Amino acid sequence: MLNRTSRRGRSLITTIALAATAGLALSACASNNGGGEEDSEFPTKDLRLIVPWQAGGSGDLSARTIAPLLEDELGVNVVVENRPGANGSVGYNWLKEQEPDGYNMSMVGAEVATLQFMDYDISPDDYEFLSQIISGPGAIAVRSDSPYETLQDLIDDAKERPGEVTYSSPGVGSVWDNPAQGLQELADIELTNVPFDGSAPSIAAAAAGDVDFSIDAVGSQKAQVDGGEMRYLAVLTEERLEELPDVPTAAEEGVDLQNASFTGIVVPAGTPEDVVTVLSEAIQAAAQDPAYTDVIESSNLIPLGTSAEEFDAFIQEEEERHGRWIELAQSTE
């Protein structure tokens, strides 16, 4: 189902094709210019950076923060354009249909690895991954007057009342619904999902006590926690977060569950390797600039700037992990 063979096969074919293309280009260059440099190098015109979500979210913020820094790195304009709709698939579909020349890029989130499992014609095979620029670690949170003092309390109650403990999510199969499947599997419990259209109403429902708990990004829940409406039970990270030293990890509570939202930048599959390298290196440099990191950190997110290879490997892991969680959810329907 995960089609790993297809992805590796595509990479091999692309590598062979690039090698052949490079050989022809070098021959032509030597014949026409006596071995001199080409007349121009990428990029020579404006770039477009698609945001497949509504304006105002963290993905939109990161795009508009990093775009001017990319302009400094690349020497051309970077135009940010929102193309929201259908879980991001409107923007994702638009990008994969563009010429793979590097002049059209898109922000991506976890949906790029999960939409294929929900009958969308979109998969990681459609893109070349340039850099992951944000990570948003997750947490399990409850309303302030919840009887659950620890994650273990929640698990114990769920064991006593199978299917009666409820959680809110930003939608079935979303990046924050999927780890709830992992929690059920690891703790051997049965929970009931109450899906909403996005994180804001999902978290609001938990804060109001309409559901028993919420799984979402630490930063997304922070306003309710700071306002005294909610409190964290556990973070879904390998180690405790520096800004939340008193909140244990889920692993410390006996459930080795980790999950984070993410944002990165991609181009269409088949984009030449040298163009991918130029863009990836520019993004990595821009993502280290304090003008970027300060804004992202102030939004309770973790700024990153991974290499293309690191981002591609990360996406493969996300595809396999979320695919298994979605299959678990579908098997219980």
From TrEMBL:
Gene3D superfamilies: Bordetella uptake gene, domain 1, Periplasmic binding protein-like II. It comes from the Bacteria. Keywords: Signal. Residues 1-30 form the signal peptide. It holds the Pfam family TctC. CDD domains: PBP2_Bug_TTT. Belongs to the UPF0065 (bug) family. PANTHER family: BLR1237 PROTEIN, TRICARBOXYLATE-BINDING PROTEIN. This is Tripartite tricarboxylate transporter substrate binding protein. It comes from Citricoccus muralis.
